Amino acid sequence: MNKKLSALVIAAFAVLTTAQAQQNDQRLNKAITDAQYFQKAAKSAPGFRDLLARRKKAVKAFRAIPTERLQPVTLKAFAVAEQRAGTRHVIIREHQYLNDSGYNNGGFDLGIGTPDHVVAAIAGDLADSYVTQAALKGIAIDSLAISIKKTGRGVKDWGLQYTLHIDSPASDAALAELKKQAEANSPLYQFSIRAHDVETIVDYTKSADSLVIPPTYQPGLREFIEWETRKHEAGRAARTAGQRPDHSRFGGYAFDYPYSRANEFTPFNTESFLTPGDPTAFVNPSTGVVVLQVRHHRVYQDHPAIFGGNDLGPTGIESHIGLLGSCFTHVAEGQAAGKQIPLDTLKVSLTAQFDPRAGRKGFEHTPLYPTDIKMRVVISSPREEAVIRQLVEDTERSCPIYNLVVNAQRIEGRIERVTAKVK
């Protein structure tokens, strides 16, 4: 090919590429601005019955893996109280998320509060189990979501109640059997209805009584704890005097500021029956990813490829272990503030054992949920070690998720038939 011909080919290719790009832009603009075009695209996307077929195929593929090739897995999670804000940063493999409180609880509303996140994670694991069991039993589903709420009282009694919102032509008897099998095969459901031991290891380092602050220093965890202490003291004094605490003096949080904006992002095919105020979980039929939603916050749960997922988020059991560490750091911050214990470092690393051979021949009695939970609490503080160890014990007694794990919980569920807007 001569140089002149090559130049013509390159020019023609450039024109073609530009035309394709413009066409793609036009399609994107139309999808964004044309509601009917969007609905048509949504209807052409893979539906729930497509997901059921893919899930059945994935389960068969996993079951075909020889048992001798499967080994127990050590689940790992890491949670740290961020220095300047006190938010909890959770890391699970390559996945990360933030847990935070709303404005009225002294947070920045940067993520889901830990208790709501745990409740949503349980709902998500249940939703995923419903999909798997429906796929194996050949039960057709056109839409599925779960809303869940806490009904128990006290830090030890959670008493969860969930509602399965399902659009399915199956009979009531078939759905009742599906509910039974889904609960029996949901790792987090089975984990939550049992009590577990948590081995806590305290890794203590004594830090300096007085901090040397260099010119580029940014406020750290010690300053956050001090801020929390002053907020608690001011609030206690105001309540004693019969007044409302003025949180506007501490970081600009007005006491009457709304906890958060409402849920504005319910999925188009489930918005008619999900309650925005309750933690919810629904399954994206195109990907099989479980979406957890609390108010306007969303996080994902997914499976690794070996279990038929895309690994777009941690699994439900990984999330639960990570949330234990997140909640522990949050409660420890509050305990330290109330007891006026300065902290310079607060980190929690966790491990648990999970055996993918559960239920197979020879492993019929192997739990399908995490076991052997270990929690290492890393703290540096100018206070003595005995004071820090007492702080950890007080945190264990007060931490909601720790008590959810070490105490058996009640979970009740019911089925509500709905009609999906898009099928």
Structure description:
The longest helix is centred in the N-terminal third of the chain and has 31 residues, at 3-33. The protein is α+β, with helices and mostly antiparallel strands and 423 residues long. It is globular, with a radius of gyration of 25 Å. The protein contains 10 helices and 12 strands. It has helices at 3-33, 35-44, 48-63, 114-137, 172-184, 187-192, 221-240, 316-338, 385-398, 400-406; strands spanning 73-81, 88-92, 95-99, 143-150, 160-167, 198-206, 280-283, 290-294, 297-301, 345-354, 371-381, 411-417.
Distinctive features:
alpha+beta, globular, 10 helices, six-stranded mixed β-sheet, 39% helix
Question: Count the strands?
Answer: 12
Number of helices: 10
Largest sheet: 6 strands, mixed
As a percent range, the share of strand residues is 15-25%
Structural class: alpha+beta
What's the helix-strand series? HHHEEEHEEHHEHEEEHEEHHE
Low-confidence stretches: 247-261, 263-272
Portion of residues in helices? 25-40%
Biggest sheet strand line-up: 3-2-1-10-11-6
Mean pLDDT: 82
Tell me the span between the first and last alpha carbons.
54 Å
The general outline is: globular
Oligomer: single chain
C-alpha-based Rg, rounded = 25 Å
